[in-house]
Specification:
5-stranded antiparallel beta sheet; 6 helices; alpha+beta; 243 residues; GMP Synthetase, Chain A, domain 3; 4-stranded mixed beta sheet; 2 domains
């Protein structure tokens, strides 16, 4: 995000939740720069212009250039943006996650990871400092929560509070793309060396999902472990049948 040419980050947007507490606002494009909106729901940012700081492509690698730039010369950064104020577009954009992190449930419903993550953190802080969202080709969304401190992982009071918050969020959700039905803490310390964190300290959703695939499978188990918070009725119904 910060490394893409032509993208200027403004002051942190007060009240917007993210890893570390806030996300940055993206300023309106400067002179000789243009921004393209090329994504249907989220906004995908691109940049092109005549200034020397904006490269026209890769040197003698037309294949890489065609992958990285669209037919109009806009760089595909993969960043999702929304208007900071839909009623006043002069205020520019706010960062809304990575389009590459979005996925479809088994039903074909798109899950917008950036906006869902921000919504969850707005309600699940201060217990959590970030969340990792799973559910690609699954029937429902499950979440790994990164605790604000290691001590709270085994605190029954904290778990009960999170259960209550998640239950309320699930009841208010407008559909499966916003409804979380399983939750567990991610207790392992994240590392830049493993790709779980970027050099800016931002959580890499896809790398964490890949490295902790076994934990994700436990989230979706027919009979989940005691440390998994379950909001779906399926496991309870199976338990009743087996009894």
């Amino acid at each position: 995000m910060g490394g893409a040419p032509g993208l200027d980050r403004g002051r942190p947007d007060h009240g917007a939740r993210a890893f570390g507490g806030r996300v940055s606002r993206v300023r309106r494009p400067a002179a000789a720069r243009r921004h393209a909106e090329t994504h249907t729901d989220a906004r995908q940012i691109g940049t092109a212009g005549s200034k020397p700081c904006v490269t026209p492509g890769y040197w003698r690698r037309d294949d890489l250039t065609s992958d990285a730039f669209d037919e109009d010369g806009f760089l595909r950064t993969g960043d999702a943006l929304q208007w900071a104020d839909a009623g006043n577009r002069q205020r520019g954009f706010r960062y809304d996650g990575r389009i590459a992190e979005d996925f479809k449930l088994a039903t074909g419903t798109w899950v917008r990871v950036g906006s869902l993550r921000a919504h969850l953190l707005q309600h699940l802080m201060p217990e959590l400092r970030d969340v990792v969202i799973a559910g690609e080709n699954r029937d429902y969304i499950a979440v790994l929560g990164i605790p604000s401190s290691p001590e709270i992982v085994h605190d029954d009071t904290v778990r009960a509070r999170l259960h209550g918050k998640l239950t309320a969020l699930a009841a208010e959700a407008s559909g499966s793309a916003q409804r979380v039905l399983r939750f567990a803490f991610l207790t392992e310390k994240l590392s830049i060396d493993t790709g779980e964190l970027t050099d800016k300290g931002v959580v890499s959703q896809r790398n964490i999902l890949r490295r902790h695939a076994a934990l994700i499978e436990k989230l979706y188990a027919d009979s989940p472990a005691d440390n998994v918070i379950c909001l779906d009725r399926a496991s309870e119904e199976r338990a009743d049948i087996s009894a």
